Amino acid sequence: MEIQQAIDHVGFGRFQRRLFLVCGVTWAADAAEIFLISFALPGFRDEFGLSATEAGLVVTATFAGMLAGAWVWGAVADRVGRRLGFQLTIAIFAFAGLASAFAPDAVWLAVLRALTGFGLGGALPLDFSLFAEYLPTRNRGRWLVLLESFWAVGTVIAAVLGLLLVPTLGWRWLLATSAVAALLVLWVRLRVPESARYLLTRGRQDEARRLLDRIATENGTRLPPGELTVPEGSGRTGLGQLLRGGLRRTTLTLWALWLLIAFSYYGIFVWLPDIFAERYGYDLLNSYRYVFYLALIQLPGYFSAAWLVDRWGRKPVLATYLAASAVATLLWSLVAGVGPILATAGLMSFFTLGAWAALYAYTPEVYPTQLRAGGMGIASGFARIGGTVAPLLGGVLLSISLVAALSVFAVAFAGAALVALVFAGETRGRPLSDTLTQLSALAPGRTRNPRK
């Protein structure tokens, strides 16, 4: 019995719902941690007497740490397993995030935010790799998109906390609150098992079978008798395979997509409170309210993408939502008045987060289990490059004009849409591959029924 057949027999039940919530809460905490620094930015900028460029460097430190974390932890998880990385990344993220609330100056704040990012950068690709490896083929894309929707939940939580805490208790309490939540997530993560797919690619058939039997019991189902088949080509492989053979085009396409969408997304969202307060002249309270609205409108963006990816496909959703993000961002740069600004910025938020969701569903599906965490980690690392550059360049562009900044970000969205349209493949209906041998045997665009 192949592992995909076994997982399809186990079905989607109590175990997957529990794992969905564990990964989802972590995902929300991750999103909140990233955006809390943008809500804290006006506070620590005033306290430490920083210029816009210096404040941008503090924000950039988080993304630099995320870049290192994504590239390190993905490779580690492909070698030592998902479970250990799953726990260590959130531990680093939680403790460094808590310490950053007590930073005595801007230098220490930047260092601690970099450490926070190092843990956070590894947590993101590991969540999706582990969850994808336990999903049945049917509706896999929908559940991966719904997991990504917790990002919007975290963004909304960050906006609410910023609205409540910054005007009353200050930015330090804001950072501490998120870190305490991450410590609770760490406690929950200790109960998450290893990936059965990972165990099988290491030749540990009996462990994988026992684990799946236990999950089947939890789901109220039963696996048929028989041993799990160790997939051909099992064993360790190097990350150099990402740029060889048929994977080269896939990998380069993903790197470009993650870089471009993150550049625009973080370039806009990190500076949102500042845009509303400094560029439009709204007071801080109203600025946070408008950011809360833009975070809230992300949720229907996710849900629409979740409905479409298993009906329309990953590629058309990704390309269409990115193109719509470009148009909405450009329109935002041209309008005036609260209503038109919120309408165009809201459309940008809606489509951008839907595009993110489709990309997070697509990426773990194109790599085999041997390379899934590492491949997704490196791809998400390119997002951190975009997130590192964007706050700095955003500060420079905003000093010129809001139109200049938004126009550059719109062009990046359009470039990502073109890359998706021309170079991305389609993974709808395809079973996950476990080895490079399996992946190469599956012709591009071909689907296979795992039950046959």
Task: Please provide a written account of the structure.
With 452 residues, the protein is mostly helical. The chain has a single domain, classed as Up-down Bundle (Growth Hormone, Chain: A), CATH 1.20.1250. It contains 19 helices and no strands. The radius of gyration is 21 Å and the shape is globular. The chain starts with a helix and ends in an 11-residue tail after the last helix.
Q: In summary, what is this structure?
A:
One of its GO terms (molecular function) is transmembrane transporter activity. The chain is an all-alpha fold and 452 residues long. Helix content is 77%, strand content 0%.
Distance between the termini: 11 Å
Helix content: over 70%
Mean pLDDT: 81
SSE ordering: HHHHHHHHHHHHHHHHHHH
H/I helix tally = 19
Regions with little confidence, pLDDT below 50 for 5+ residues = 443-452
The global form is globular
The main β sheet shows up as:
none
Count the beta strands.
0
Q: What is the fold-level CATH name, i.e. the topology?
A: Growth Hormone, Chain: A
- Rg to the nearest angstrom? 21 Å
β-strand percent reads under 5%
- The CATH superfamily name is MFS general substrate transporter like domains
- CATH architecture descriptor name: Up-down Bundle
Class per helix and strand makeup: mainly alpha
What is the count of structural domains?
1
* CATH secondary-structure class: Mainly Alpha
List keywords for this structure.
single chain; 452 residues; mainly alpha; Growth Hormone, Chain: A; 19 helices
List strands and helices in order, with pairings.
Blueprint: H1 3-10, H2 14-48, H3 52-80, H4 82-100, H5 106-132, H6 140-148, H7 150-165, H8 171-189, H9 196-201, H10 205-219, H11 247-269, H12 272-279, H13 284-296, H14 298-309, H15 314-334, H16 338-366, H17 372-400, H18 402-423, H19 436-441
Main location: membrane
Membrane topology: Multi-pass membrane protein
Keywords: Membrane, Transmembrane, Transmembrane helix, Transport
